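Final report, results section. Input specification for complex C-07:
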Amino acid sequence: IKNIKKRDAADVNVDGIDIHSMKIDCKITSRFAHTIITSQAVNRANVSKEALFDVELPKTAFITNFVMTIDGVSYPGIIKEKEAAQQQYQKAVSRGQTAGLVKASGRKTEKFSVSVNIAAAKNVTFELNYEELLKRSFGKYELLIKVNPKQLVKQFEIEANIFEPQGISYLDAEASFITNDLLPVMQKSFSGKKGRVVFKPTLDQQRSCADCPTTLLNGDFVIKYDVNRETPGNIQIVNGYFVHFFAPKNITRLSKNIVFIIDVSISMSGRKLEQTKQALLKILEDIKEDDYLNFVLFGSDVHKWKDTLIQATPENLEEARRYVRDINIAGWTNLNGGLLAGIEMLNEAQRSGTLPERSASLIIMLTDGRPTKGETNTQTIIDNVRNAIQGKYPLYNLGFGYDLDYASLEKMAAENNGLARRIYEDSDSDLQLQGFYDEVANPLLTEVELKYPENAISDLTQNNFKHYYDGSEIVVAGRITDNDLNSITAEVTAHGAEDDMIFAEQADVEETTKALEEREYIFGDFIRRLWAYLTIHQLLEKRNAAKGEEKANLTAKALEMSLQYKFVTPLTSMVVTKPEDNEDKTALADKPLEAEATRQSSQSVVPSYSVPATSHRYTSVDGD
Amino acid sequence: PHFIIDVPQKEDALCFNINEDPGVVLNLIRDPTTGIIVNGQLIGDVTTDNDAGLHNTYIGRLGIINTQLNLTLEVTPEKIVLHNGTKQKTFMWLDEVILLHPSLTLKIIRKKSLEVSLGEGATFEVVLHKKWKKHLSHADFLGFYIMDSHRLSENTHGLLGQFLHPIDFNILEVHPGSDPEKPDATMIVKNNQLTVTRGWQKDYTEDTKRGTNVPCWFIHNNAEGLIDGTYTDYVVPSLF
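Structure output:
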């Protein structure tokens, strides 16, 4: 968290802005996290000063509220339809005022910053609220808090209270800046349903060295936890809304059939190709003997390692390693050709019955550019891929760097039960690639369908999933329409490694409601908000892949819910009004989209060309 | 001279050279709405009689005009002359002066640069490049930078002026070029497919002696395909 500070001030409390508190208060109930960041400051100077509130929040979170209180007068942010907010904003811009408040800032975060002039001897309190559903990955939920106050803060505190009706099985917290001296300051405890993490360093404990005026609090503060799983699933019901968490354990892993479709066009040359090779070699080490695999490389032309998928025997893996080491650059980007060759290979294997009967097939495609060879019309490629896959296997699109049409990769993946992920150009790109593979390396179930009593529920979130991977969790939420319903029964059907499986889950409405009556942990209608959050996310994903009237309907529904539940989503903006020189100014908080992300000049990237710094660049004519 | 085009939407820059003969006047900015015009006259290296090869050219003389206000400003490496109707004022580069005229502000930084503001939202900077005393072939020359163009209308054109409107381009297939430090790429711009080279050009607004490297995509062939028409379309008969 970047705290309030005087602009350009290198040290604490320079020029009179005195920050006396900064608190990050997080309440997590049933994986749904509600975070409030509050910061208070006083201008002790004789003249007005500018205070800056600058914090980073997870990309997966939606801002829900922001209030600025200056000397007792509150200026709340108002969430509006994006277009309406933009119009208001344009008026402000035409008067030469202000800029957007939220910007993409890193791989996992976006930055919210607002500054305001504080008159002499006046005080200001900033309060930002955001919410997110924590995703289970590698068997843990993870809450990320970015800490960067840049100066010593008199009362600095991070407090997270977790309430999980299933009971907490594991809880840990770590910070990238932690020292031996600070370790005892981090208090972690859990018992039964409750967990707590508190980090409250004193001024001296914040110092980067004894008597130093600088802070060592700079980095990631991460809380990880998991819950008990006595049953494969757990249903929770509060105030007419339910959520079903499904994460069975002790299930035999399925073998998988995986096709890697790799871009080897000339723009991949150099470090990107080397990192890709490193990642593939590491993946080959982890691949199981009952898995099947193949590689399709596309440059100007398309090359297959083998004509069909082959089993990952030690001999075949050795040959695969040799093949990967010898991968070379080969011209332009024939994306369409590469994708269709990989899909057809899986289709053919399925037709001929050469793959294990109970196995999970998937495609991982990696590209760093736009199509420049063969079919170059992106929509046609998307249509071709959808028609070729026909919903049979998920397609995961990895976009390497920024010189690509990420929105199209997202759309293509969403249409084919997969997802897109950006691989950031950096020294750890190979680890990012491996990390993604690890997430999908252990499929446990395929064709997972979660069914509920049809007449008693409505507004269900996605309840069909192509695959369920070890260490993840399926979440479905919905609304109960039958007021007299005493219990909910869920039936989950899926294909496992040995059998088809049916899991049944029942939850008593009264009992689960009672179990959740822990007032101090519950922030409002959290299951309803969880349902709304999940529904909006899924509507936005579906919207990416939709066209025409369907797209308009999805947009309208997502917008309506964003406004109703006061979420800053890609369809809404929060208008923040702040008093400046006796005249109110407005600024907008918008949610940045990954598809619109651009290379950050501060990132340590080594692209094949350098990117100019944004300062000192003018349209000009000159000579040397 | 080398042109640098800032493309803020892409957080990137484009650059190109225009190679024309000394004496030729190029229109840099023309805004019929505000009446602001900027023209630049080229000069070449100082050559010797037996030197018949190709030479670099530079901006040797600048004309900044506001037709609506009947103001003209002539800038050469020697002096700065302001014509206001029938009145004329001359400044030398040795002067350190700020002139607050009702419709124009001039700020001369002695022997370095000149800032010209034609009202709020139209500010230019002229950089003076003095030759190295012992350098025989170079002449003194000028650089011209658009610091603020908000006041210029959407009708603005000219070699620089056309780029004050948003321009979109896409870079495809970055690949090694003839120089290992300067990769080539394909640029899609204005429905043209151009081969461009990643390089850098100098911006002298901060450091008038050494300049600052601005990474940019270099467009070859006098910016053919990037600029509207060809560079000869921007040749005008005189500075004013």
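The interface with chain B takes residues 265-267, 269, 332-333, 369-370, 372, 403, 598-599, 601, 607-612, 614, 616-624 of chain A (CB under 8 Å). Residues 526-545 of chain A form the longest helix (20 residues). This concludes the modelling results for the funded period.
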